Amino acid sequence: MPDHAVNPNALMRIAVIDDDVNIHDSLRILLEKLAFQPSFFFDTTDFLGSSKAEGFDCILLDVMFGDDINRGLDLLKHFHDHKVATPVIMMSGYTDKQIRFRAAKLGATAFLQKPILATALGVALREALTPEKHRKSAPLVDPEVFAQMLNAPTALDFKQWQSVLDCAEGHLGEDLSAKLKALTHSQAKVFLIVAQDGGATARHLSQQLGIRIKAAEIHLNELEKKIGPETRTHMHKILEKLQVAIKLPKFGFFGNMDGKSSSM
Question: Looking at residues 6-10, what average pLDDT do you find?
């Protein structure tokens, strides 16, 4: 990797290896806004023929090139076999678990889902460029446990809820994470109900939680004060962030989990 001790003001160099010119254009905008210096390559052979991985601080590597679904993983394996220390973030339009597993096994630090969001890119790069000894080891939460929370919010285990928030802190940001951690047990239940059903009324909440309508109204009002005025739409977006964070494998997965994107 480049020695920034020589010039601490130099921009970190990011290699983007992808055969789609539209991805080049969008990532150029995102990376330059994040104050990185990107270089672009249309093929893995172009990269190997003109550059050394060690000349970059991080590499963004597509999985699929043309019809070859293994091209990106083959280059990742090359880096792995040659003990290249430069962190590699994989990119794909699909969420194939087998591909993600192979990428993680070959040392990828993260897996970005296309279309790539600025927040997801920023988080992935921050994690990749943070020395391992300085990284916080976030607790892992079983996705099945989180799914049970969503299916039965009235039976929410508050300790498990706190573990979810600890795990998702990197995706939520400090401010939002603090707001969610400030919710009481009852307010967390209300959050999970309303985040999934934006039309839930105080009467509906009272029936689900087995409390008086007035008590449900109080919980709902307090929740709105803590989360923000645009609560209903905002809470659904927060829930989506939680779902992304909890469905991460042991290496970072950032993006849409429905697997419906059309390009790699």
Answer: 44
